[in-house]
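User: Reviewer 2 asked us to show a designed sequence for the structure in our supplementary figure. I'm pasting the structure tokens here. Could you produce the per-position amino acids so we can include them in the response letter?
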């Protein structure tokens, strides 16, 4: 008897044989964070990528930003990959920006009795231990970051630095995106996933006149490019940065 699981494997094999580079599963919540699970056929890599949170880094002096990858793994067969996806989406938990199996998660939590976190490593929202920070170096765990973003509160909860929560940072500077040559190869092939900040505001930019009024008026409705954070002391209007990131991801989905 052919199960739906087998049928899905057949679908993936058909897509791959027809020349598709990847398969995007529908966005889903993994441990409370919205993610895209993606299979990259050419490199046999499975990734779990945040829908809302990106990371910035530089490579050869050039600044880039990409969807933040919470997890990636090489797979041997589609069957292995699909079984792993089942486990990840039902059991895995987020710790310090990584998705961990329940066993790994419990072990890492136990380690805290011998290697405690410092006073500066407590999420400023839920007070759980974390090495995740805003790009202004204030601690916030991944789950609280996502919750704030969903509530459209994207300023730093400590210093109110504007529009920073969608940019992932970690005090140890441990980013899967930056450390993995596999991910680099995947993303370099895909302009939507390997954006220099100058490219991010492309969708609307063409229709906007070339004049650039900065700091003229806070109530300007122009989309704010996803670039370096802007320091504003008062609460700014909720900006379109997240919407912009989502639009980019949606565009990507439709390819
Ligand atoms: Zn938290
Ligand atoms: Zn801050």
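Assistant: Here is a per-position design you can include in the supplement:
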């Amino acid at each position: 008897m052919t199960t739906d699981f087998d049928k899905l494997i057949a679908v993936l094999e058909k897509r791959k044989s027809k020349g598709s580079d990847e398969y995007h599963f529908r966005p889903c919540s993994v441990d409370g964070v919205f993610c895209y699970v993606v299979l990259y056929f050419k490199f046999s890599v499975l990734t779990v990528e945040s829908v809302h949170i990106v990371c910035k880094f530089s490579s050869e002096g050039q600044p880039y930003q990409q969807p933040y990858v919470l997890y990636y793994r090489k797979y041997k067969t589609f069957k292995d990959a699909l079984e792993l996806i089942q486990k990840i989406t039902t059991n895995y938990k987020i710790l310090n920006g990584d998705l961990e199996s329940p066993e790994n998660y419990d072990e890492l939590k136990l380690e805290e009795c011998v290697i405690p976190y410092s006073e500066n490593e407590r999420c400023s929202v839920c007070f759980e231990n974390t090495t995740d920070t805003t790009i202004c170096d204030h601690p916030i765990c991944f789950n609280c970051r996502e919750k704030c973003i969903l509530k459209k509160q994207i300023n730093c909860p400590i210093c109110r630095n504007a529009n920073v929560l969608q940019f992932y940072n970690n005090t140890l500077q441990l980013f899967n995106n930056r450390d993995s040559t596999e991910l680099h190869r995947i993303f370099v092939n895909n302009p939507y996933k390997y954006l220099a900040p100058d490219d991010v505001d492309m969708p609307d930019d063409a229709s906007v006149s070339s004049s650039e009024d900065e700091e003229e008026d806070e109530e300007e409705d122009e989309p704010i490019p996803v670039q370096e954070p802007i320091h504003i002391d008062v609460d700014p209007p909720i900006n379109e940065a997240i919407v912009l990131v989502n639009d980019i991801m949606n565009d990507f989905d439709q390819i």
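For the response letter, you might also mention the following. The pocket of zinc ion (ligand 2) is lined by residues 134, 136, 138, 156, 158-159, 161 (CB under 6 Å). The CA atoms of residues 211 and 254 lie 32 Å apart.
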